[in-house]
Amino acid sequence: MRLVAGLLAGLAAIAAVSAQGNQSAPFFLKLKSKSADLNGNYLYAGHTGALQQTFLLYDSKPLANDTSAIFNWNYTIDNGVASQFGLLTWLFPSRPSSPVQNLWLALDLTLSIRTNVAPTSISSGEGYIYVGWDGDKLYIPGAGTADDSKFVPHVYPNVTASYGLKLQQWYACWVYFGPYYYLAVAWVTTGHPHNPTCEPVSIVREFV
Predict the structure, then answer these.
(1) InterPro entries given for it (predicted)?
(2) Residue 166 in contact with residue 142, Cβ under 8 Å?
């Protein structure tokens, strides 16, 4: 049963990525931070579960053939114009005997009811988030969202104010992925991180 579920999840991931139609050149992801311990670190896909990874940190630049640290961006082109948003993807290293080959996993966030810190997840599931680039900085578009800190009873929120928002609420935090405990990249949904180990970072792509 687990094999069937894994295959279906893998096929869902392939379908989501394939739907984007176009893929960028490969790149590394590098952290920018005021913290000397974090600034200049590179990211790689680290294991958290079956067909699930998260962004973990390298303290040095990976080799050009290090597939654990090589990512792509998948996007669409409509009437000759490239979309602003797409999927950040990573090629899972399938074994030759695996029934699913060329399995592309997409970036998502793992939300929890106990915290506003959402660890990054690179998975084969049906969940994924659209991202964009402000120059070479990774962001999540805020289009269509509403700031509930400004809500007034019976007054419809100004959702259009969110269009054009390029949210970069990335943090490096110690995160528990039972049974693993990693220094990983996470997203803070709002306000200050509930997790006291979190430090703000920017994520920048660097083409291989």
Answers:
(1) DUF7907 (IPR057229)
(2) yes
Residue 90 lies in domain = 2-207
Q: In CATH, what number is assigned to the domain containing residue 15? A: 2.80.10
pLDDT digits (tens, 9 = 90+) for 130-155: 999 999 999 999 988 888 999 999 99
**CA nearest 62: which of 89, 40, 92, 35?**
40
Q: What pTM, to 2 d.p., does this model score?
A: 0.88
Query: What 3 state SS string does 65-129 have?
Result: CCHHHCEEEEECEECCEECCCEEEEEEECCCCCCCCCCEEEEEEECCECCECEEEEEEECCCCCC
CA angle 9, 102, 46 (to 5 degrees): 70
Whether the bond between 179 and the residue before it is cis, its omega within 30 degrees of 0, is yes
